[in-house]
């Protein structure tokens, strides 16, 4: 098995014992309310978006990806690990400030690790002509498998500090990275302006991805707070929810997502994911009440496959699609320049002067993946976390899901409308 698959498995397995429980931890051990947490989760993605390209560029410039990766893993471990000190710090608002600083350190390190790992995976799948989903699915297996273990430990071994199961797991991905011979060289060339200029339809998908980011933030940031509201402090249920989301939801969808995408196309596949979000959040907001049974809660979590597994596959495929279009444009321009070379043509645009098709593919794909993940994990998650915290604090925990359901329906209407406009436009121009 590829060391990158092992790293995905262990890294997301470690995070599953921490990330879903962090918001609950903050409300239990600091003076923060859900609106405070929402503001923090709004600010975090933008700050992390500064650190990610900074440290990744340092790794590229000095060909030191392994060193930066190890440093980032250690920063993540320290950031999350020191959160345990808050349990013993009873200084009111100071505990909240301490929480914010440590989460900033942890999230920055975590974001850098995921970016570097995604970059290395993209290089490998491009070189071996493999499917990205075949690698990413191991992160889902780790997340679901270790998530349920963390839930059981937190529920029944109450003497252990909260978040400890996930922290103990972090030593495993670190040991894998220390032993792995990472080698990478990357000439980063920014194609953003040219890509948007030549592919205006990309804006449509960026807007949809932003909405997906906001909808996902509702679940990632506040779902366990919601479970506490309807079921009480039940860590076992939280762990089981992660297990079902991963193994009954994401895992099968990552396997068949390419088939759905091939038959339905990207826009219709995104509509299916949005419809699943609308259904899921409608159930959360209007059907579930205090005392809802385990079985009802866990059954709905199967929809995670459509809301994340299918969506994430479509997002990466769109990046590949537009990268391929950009490659064809650049290669066509290169051929035109070669023909003009005999006529003593002068300078060549840097975006066209590339050394090989493989280098070109790596640059364009990395750029598009960065644009997509930035819209999803940066702006989208930030806006969703802020709005979610505000809604919960000012109204109630059910309001966030009601708004989310209607937001998903709005996104479907927007997507269908844009597709209709594109169809009419293309039909007229073909004539």
Mind explaining what this structure looks like?
This protein is mainly alpha-helical. It folds into 2 domains: 1-182, MFS general substrate transporter like domains (Growth Hormone, Chain: A); 187-431, Growth Hormone, Chain: A (Up-down Bundle). It is 82% helix and 0% strand. The protein is built from 15 helices and no strands. It has helices at 3-16, 19-29, 34-62, 65-81, 93-128, 132-156, 164-169, 171-179, 192-198, 202-231, 235-287, 294-300, 304-341, 357-394, 399-430. Helix 6 (132-156) packs across helix 11. The longest helix is centred in the middle third of the chain and has 53 residues, at 235-287. The chain starts with a helix and ends with a helix. Residues 182-190 and 345-359 have low confidence and may be disordered.
């Amino acid at each position: 098995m590829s060391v990158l698959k092992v790293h995905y498995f262990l890294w997301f397995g470690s995070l599953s014992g921490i990330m879903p429980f962090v918001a609950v931890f903050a409300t239990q051990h600091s003076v923060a309310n859900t609106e405070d947490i929402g503001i923090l989760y709004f600010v975090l993605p933008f700050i992390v978006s500064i650190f990610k390209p900074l440290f990744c560029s340092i790794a590229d410039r000095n060909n030191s990806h392994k060193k930066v990766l190890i440093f980032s893993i250690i920063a993540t471990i320290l950031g999350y690990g020191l959160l345990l000190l808050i349990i013993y710090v009873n200084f009111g608002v100071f505990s909240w400030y301490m929480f914010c600083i440590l989460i900033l350190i942890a999230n920055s390190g975590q974001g850098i690790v995921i970016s570097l790992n995604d970059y290395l995976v993209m290089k490998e799948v491009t070189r071996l002509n493999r499917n990205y989903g075949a690698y990413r699915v191991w992160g889902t297996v780790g997340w679901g498998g270790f998530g349920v273990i963390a839930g059981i430990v937190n529920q029944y071994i109450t003497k252990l500090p909260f978040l400890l199961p996930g922290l103990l797991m972090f030593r495993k991905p670190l040991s894998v990275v220390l032993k792995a011979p990472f080698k990478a060289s990357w000439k980063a060339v920014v194609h953003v302006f040219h890509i948007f200029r030549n592919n205006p339809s990309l804006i449509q998908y960026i807007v949809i991805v932003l909405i997906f980011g906001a909808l996902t933030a509702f679940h990632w940031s506040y779902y366990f707070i919601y479970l506490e509201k309807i079921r009480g402090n039940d860590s076992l249920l939280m762990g089981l929810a992660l297990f079902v989301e991963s193994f009954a939801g994401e895992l099968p969808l990552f396997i068949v997502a390419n088939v759905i995408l091939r038959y339905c196309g990207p826009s219709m596949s995104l509509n299916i994911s949005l419809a699943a979000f609308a259904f899921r959040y409608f159930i959360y907001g209007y059907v579930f009440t205090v005392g809802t049974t385990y079985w009802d809660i866990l059954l709905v979590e199967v929809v995670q496959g459509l809301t994340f597994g299918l969506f994430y596959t479509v997002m990466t495929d769109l990046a590949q699609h537009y990268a391929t279009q950009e490659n064809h444009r650049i290669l066509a321009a290169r051929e035109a320049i070669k023909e003009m070379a005999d006529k003593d043509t002068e300078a060549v645009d840097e975006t066209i002067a590339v050394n090989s098709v493989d280098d070109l593919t790596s640059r364009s794909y990395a750029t598009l993946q960065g644009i997509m993940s930035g819209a999803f994990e940066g702006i989208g998650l930030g806006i969703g976390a802020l709005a979610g915290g505000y809604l919960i604090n000012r109204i109630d925990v059910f309001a966030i899901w009601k708004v989310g359901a209607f937001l998903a329906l709005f996104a479907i209407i927007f997507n269908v409308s844009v597709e209709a406009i594109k169809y009419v436009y293309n039909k007229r121009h073909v004539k």
